[in-house]
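Lab manual, section 2.4: Encoding a predicted structure.

Procedure: take the sequence of the chain (1424 residues), apply the prediction step described in section 2.3, and record the output as structure tokens. A sample record is shown.
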Amino acid sequence: MAYYKSTPKVGLGSQTLATTPETAFKIAHQRVSIDLDLSNHSLNGSAEIILIPLSDKLEFVTLDCKEIQITDVIVENRRCDHYIHDDPYRWYADKYSTGKLSELPLFDTNSVEQAHFLRNKFAELNLPSESSDATRSQVTIRIPPSVKITLQEANALSSFTPITPSIRTPAQDTIYSPITIKINYQLQNPTSGLQFDTSREQHLWTACTVNTEWNASASHWLPCVDTMEEKCTWELEFSVPKKVKDIGTHNVIGVTKPNKRRKVRDDNVKNADSGRHIDQEDAPISKHRSRRHADGEPNEDDHDDELDDDDEEDDDEEEEDNPFNRDIVVCASEFSTGKEAPHPTDLSRKLVSFQIFNPVAPHHIGWAVGAFQAWTLPQIKTHGEPEEESDETAAIAEIPDDEEPDVIPIQVYTLPSPDVDERVILNSTLVAQEILDFYAREFGSYSFTSYCLLFLPSIPDDSTDFAGATFCNTRLLYPPEIIDLTFSTTDKLSWALATQWSGVNVTPLELNDIWCCIGMAGYMSLQFSKHLMGLNEFKYRVKTLSERVADRDWEKPPIAGAFAHASMPVTSLSKELEFIKLKAPIVLYILDRRMTKTERSFGMSRVLPKIFLQAMSGDLPNSTISTSHFQHVCERVNKNKLENFFKEWVFGSGVPIFRITQRFNKKRMVVEMGIRQCQVQEIAQDKTVGAEGFQSSALSHITYPNTNLIPVFTGSMTIRIHEADGTPYEHIVELKDTFTKLDIQYNTKYKRLKRRRKINKSAKHEGKDQTPFETADMAGADEENEDIVLVNCLGDVLMGAKDCQQWNLTDPFMTSEGDEFQQQNEAFEWIRIDADFEWVCKVYINQPDYMFASQLQQDRDVEAQIDSIRFFQDVVMNSNENSLIYSSILTRTAMDDRYFYGVRVEACKALSSFIVSQANSDSFMGGAKHLIKIFQHYFCYENSSIPFNNDFSSYQRYFLQGAIPHLLSQVKNDNDVCPKFVKRFLLNIVRYNENAENSYDDTIYVVNLIRSAVTSALNDPDDEPFYRDLLHELRRFKNLDQWIPSYQLLVTKCIMDQHLRLAVDGYFVYDDISQILEYALNESSTSSPGICRHFREGMQDLLLTSFKILLVEGGIKNREALKLFFEHMLFHPDPYIRVNLVGSLIDAVNFIADKRCLDIFDDDFESLHTTADTVVKAEALELGDANIIVESFSAETANKREMQLRGTMNGLITLMRRKFATYEPLKHITWDTLHSPLASVYQKKSLFDLVRVIYQMEDRLCVRLTIPKDRKLMAKNMGKGVVKLRREGILKVHLTPKPKINVKRKPSMTPKSSSLKVKLNATTVKKPSSPAKSRGGVGAGGTAASDSIAPVSPKKAKKLVKSSITKIGSLPLRFIKISPHRRSVDLSAVSFNENVRIVKSNTRSLVIKIRTAQNRNASKKEAS
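Recorded output:
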């Protein structure tokens, strides 16, 4: 991103975008020409930029330009040589390719502990600031002095360029004369922004842009100002081959055509049979493929007529048989403006051009090239339109042209594949037309003229958003037989289309304003789900989303400050935006609920259209929105200040937790209520540290150690009291403090509830099998009928005595564990807190259980029903005794088909919360047994655990059928182990599952069953027969999936994941490493793609899973395994695998943090040495030592310490850093990868973030200084345990021995000094250069010296012990052993051990002598 956009001539200086929003120029228009070469992964481009100066003193222009080689710069038709291209990507790439990277001090002598220094070299990986080097990766162009900048009228430039009103300066009607800059450039093997996929057959080759990194994607393939607020109009021109067979070839006019032509390999033709098959089947649909404009057909020259006619005849013959004759199609933004023309010089290529008239940021310019098939989605008419057509047929027929402009064409592009046909496309994307119409009707007109969807298996994310286009992964496509993906794909498409309004057309002003665009898009998506699926589904989604926000918002930063210190760049592939996508739409929803409380406001239904209208009219500068502007628009619509709301919910974190007490005062006829906010004390209770993933949670904690937790939330709350006559009375209260005391007036006569209780009690004593409706009808003849309230209750199933006995249910009128007399004398039915859903909160109220039962059975609101179920679930989880009454209420709720399916699933979830007592497992018949009974009733044969053949025709029952096995796997007993009867039941469901007569596919259901069965088996090592049966079933399903592949090979992937879970707990053993790398090394080991739907996507997932298993099973500490992993991450031809392998590494680290690391393939010497040394020390303790006291901690104490550290994020980070501190292979290869030019921006960012978490960053640099010659290390024993170490001088080696020096000294020297010199000579000289020969002359001519030292030397010679230096490889000398009694000093690279002695160590061998226990005993006997 270009933070420094320009440099004025005089006085203005360099100003960053972060500090000064004013810039020195504005991009008005940009023409881009691209000549693409798929075979070489390269392109030659030309970018013509028309900019409007905002000052007549403009001297320098700065553009973002990364990984690009600039060949020429032209300013106003003048060649410019005065430009500076400062790009660290290309600089490091040159150093890496020439082998000079090792010469850099930072790379050679440092490691991942200094990774933050390397990260500072790349501007887009850091936050913009004045202290950082923000001008990196930019090209700075000097404007020639001959170019004059003058003021001109804006109207005079209308014919020069399609300038929009938004480019004018706000305070001037005139603008400066535009400047045209043309940059010619080349790009080879890009790593970010543009990806080439040539991993398969040639007719499946593609190239497409990706923008997963904000403000760091477009500048990797295009010189531009890569920021969201720099928008302009665009012209795009692409030079591409005409057909697949023309890829990599040229047919230039006037050049003799070579005789040899590109031959089609037989294997490629065979592999393309599936493509021929789909062309024959879908010919009616794809008639217009790549022929949208008939006037754009290429015209041949006269002198090439004969040659072209021959080529056309050959093409006609092979058109139906050869996939290499497919047309190359360009999919780009605003496809409706596309035009196709022949190439002026090359007959094998064509030119395709597009125009974008709405100003768009470079980040949202997207295009793709490939042999795509195209489908145009049909128009969908609403339910009311047919009736209107019958009445106004004549009127509509008269003005057909007026309605056509309102229709936005939607086109879908896919690669030819046997599993992508018309039914799959329509089944997955037909809803897009309805989504587009709904948004245009409710929130404002669509900003572009067309919309297209591109589905490719290489797209790294689920969807990437561009102007008028969305590039999606093919995993979103699903056939009609797969019903599980219906909701998820529809939600993702609705969100992608909403992003066209909020995210592409309207962009955030700053990074911290991203929540505005995400929140508006999410709110639009929620409103569409309400329109499409109904009110109950909408309320159920809002309720579940709010509960997820309340559970997760306890260690998160505010949504308006999430990127103040975040890791750059922001990317949609990581979890940085995940929480904002969760919370921001809910915040806007509760804001809408509060705004619509008053009659004067229309809420978000007026705010969003107003913002989009401002963007279209130019009132919103650059169509960028800030948090302050969004707040201003909301306050204008609401006609009230919303400062407190934004302060608490947008600029603050956390959610309120309410503890509410209530009591009815009979004397005053009021309900006394107290509301206390306890979020400061309770928000972190019962939370698991790192539950969302260790890496993301730790990075968030390091980045934001202190979140802005709000202690008191303010606002109005609606309290609804259902009084005795059943009438709800709403009371609006204001919360302004930590504790709020209320007195709510009571409105109903007190006796009515008592009369109703008597009616119910009489029906109970009669013992008849009556429903509440029959009871009410019988009471109709009562003379006091006017005092009776008729109630229509849900959950009135299984009411008869026979049903109660068969299902082990309690009396249907028994709804409380408390006193029934108290229940009869209550003044109201129940109290509903926050009835209008104006808060995202947790509510705990001291309301009796029978009131929650009444709320569950009588309140029609889905949110109220879920609140009641949450109460029963909370009581069950925190109670020491199980309640059969609660289990009966929940069972009747799950069995009543009139309840919404989500409520029934939540009731089953509450049933799974019952703890099964081992001692009295047969006495309590509720909980898990009721859950099994429900499944048997709906889906099994009578009195059997064998299920029926699958029948997914009823969606309600299918969701229930999929949820119950998963919930059963969560059932635990007193020892936190799943009961045996539950495990056997799940195993029977897995074993006898049959889908033969089902019209829908059961792949995802089978995956759910397998995962549930394995979950139930964990943590129970005593049940070995069950493990044998479970592993047998896993083998059976894996063999079945190899013979009859499942959808996307999901069953095989699930089995691999479950094997890993079992292996970590010791219940499964991998026989060989080839079993782990089965799909990583041989990607075609499964069945052929012709009989498997989404085969390539499945193989991608299997490869990623294989590497995750390899890393977790010890490969993360193995040098060869890490080499294999990082080679795939950098060199694999599939871009999807390259990008997501980083995610596999992070998943492995998260898995290790949650579980433990298995050292199977460990070759880390340091770790091995530590383990061996620990064993030796333990053996040495048996001998005893009088001077050393060793405290031995048990394993239990160590586990307690570890659990205590895991309780906080700081402790967990400390544990992980200790674990990874000795992982030397991971350090070395990660450090090399961070310097590799093949690593993309996302890969670098992910690795930088990972090493920041698992290693302690050190602000120091190790520098290696060259030494002319090696010097010997000398040790001098100073006595009293003091040894002086120093290096021996270079010249001392060449001096004569010291006895000769003693001859020259006077005989009067004291013997003390003479003996001292001999002592030093004997102890320090380890290996004399000439032992006998050099000393011979001294002995002959130095008799005086020999006589002087004669009394001393014999004694010293006996005590002379040879010292040693043990070196192993490149390990430094770190250990010193001083032996006073031997008078020796030993140096070693490893610690000293009396039982292990290194005999020989060199680069090829290592010989170690180990002293065993038998040798030690023998030596003891000899000594005795």
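Check your result against the sample. The radius of gyration is 39 Å.
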